[in-house]
Amino acid sequence: MQVSYAELHCISNFSFLRGASHPEEMVGRALALGYSGLAITDECSFAGSVRAHLGLQETIEVYPAARDFKLIHGTEIQLADGPRLVLLATTRAGYGNLSQLVTLARRAAIKGSYRLTLHDVEAYHSLLDDCLALLVPPLHAPDQNDLKHVRWLAQLLPGRSWIACELARGPDDTAHLSTLQALARQTGLPLVASGDVHMHMRRRKRLQDALTAVRHKLPLAQCGTRLFPNAERYLRPLYRLARIYPPELLAETLAIAERCRFSLDELRYEYPEEVVPAGETPATYLRRATYEQAVRRYPQGMPESVRALVEYELKLIEDLQYEPYFLTVYDIVRFARSQKILCQGRGSAANSAVCYCLGITEVDPARMEVLFERFISKERNEPPDIDVDFEHQRREEVMQYIYNKYGRHRAALTAALHTYRPRGAMRDIGKALGLSLDQVDKLAKTMAWWDGRKIQPERLLEAGFDPDNPVIAQVVELAQELVGFPRHLSQHSGGFVIARDRLDRMVPIENAAMDDRTVIQWDKDDLDALGLLKIDVLAIGMLSCIRRALDQWDLERGIHGRPCVTRSPTIWRG
Fold this sequence. Notes:
The protein is α/β, with parallel strands linked by helices. The chain has helices at residues 23-33, 49-62, 92-107, 118-123, 144-156, 173-187, 205-216, 238-244, 247-259, 282-297, 304-320, 323-338, 353-357, 395-406, 422-432, 437-444, 457-462, 470-482, 524-530, 541-560, and strands spanning 6-7, 37-40, 70-78, 84-89, 131-136, 161-165, 191-193, 343-346, 387-391, 411-419, 486-498, 509-511, 518-523, 535-540. The protein has a seven-stranded mixed sheet, sandwiched between helices. A seven-stranded mixed sheet has the order 8-9-14-11-10-13-12. Strand 5 (131-136), helix 5 (144-156) and strand 6 form a beta-alpha-beta unit. Helix 7 (205-216) packs across helix 15, helix 15 runs antiparallel to helix 16 and helix 15 (422-432) packs across helix 18. The longest helix is centred in the C-terminal third of the chain and has 20 residues, at 541-560. The radius of gyration is 28 Å and the shape is globular.
């Protein structure tokens, strides 16, 4: 009998220290097994969604038949006072709702955690519009509280909710299935098969166990029931699923997958509108601002060569519709000047005559030849990247200006994804396998950054470890698998994403470790892949040194009555 199936509950390694496979590996394996679809449902997160999306796009380029594969975007949430839910987006609006719900849960807790209650879900019931829900019941026999939660969900989302039947080849699978079937009849909520998948292949079980030990900060020998009892939480072949689940539960997965039509290709980034005065378009305002500010650069009149260059750039910027990006950076720089905060644009943006006229950069096109196409070109089809450095001590004023101007729901820092390198992987795996702290420290220090991402056996010999020792060999093997895995999200050094409407409907926003900072769940590579632009608000200590030097110069000049000396035009002090 031909079996079809879509996995609706899948945890990748972006559920940090839980999942044991990359999102791309999950997608590739599901395609190889002949699945009809796969839902990436990381815990209160969409951090792995872009990687899964890119993995599918790359496969489609090679195998066009993969276009029929359903990649579903969703999330798993454990309610603080209720059941575990798997929520799936059916449309762009549904994805935006879930992204906003994840933001709500993340912002209600400290960095790295979240909190969402039954009351929260009821209060923000509209955020479940265009979404489907699976209730994951506990493995024990449902009690009156569990029955109450099932009925609660059935009333909350009629026609859009199911009970997830997750059979992991345990000794009581038959009894568990019978109990869930009875619960479904009692509440009217249908059953659907799902796998609570944590790895794309079962050979990752040892790594998944080690990650569990790292998460609980315990050696494996003390983890006990915190570990899965077997290796069944992987993407299982269709023939095995057919032996485990009733056919109607497998068929229900296809019906659910068919209702989920959202793709990340539907995300469209729009720049904020505040930077354009009423009655003007971005193109007319950028042109006006460029020529008005150019008077400060060229008090004797703009050279014709520069004027021709400005006109060329403005035309290309208009063709690519990047005017709001330039105007947003211009607005931030103007704020800094108004507060007498030294700032300096750099990088490929210095090749732009428009950036020079606006005061963003300091490379005068009249004094040297610059190639604008190094900054922006139609052929490369890459978004512009303007890096602006601010005084180290006062950069926070600029960042808070952005938050206050656009709101926390529209502006946030880009994430920086920290991944395992050999030294960190050896340290965590060594602890998980029960090595002493001295051994772990010595083992980790055998790795050097110049060794790259490969763990070198000769390094172990140099430190007195036997690579053939079974424990050391296992540490090396698991650590090598762990290299490249995401460890946690932190904040980018200063890359901001600012949206016209709600940024939290495009990507979830969470608290950063620092006070008054919020961060999206995607890093710069994810943003580049989706064509979303960030604005780099960076800090540099040398500008602080220059500020102190100029202040001291002013002080001494005032005390000694020195005549005014014209300062270098390369530093604007507001």
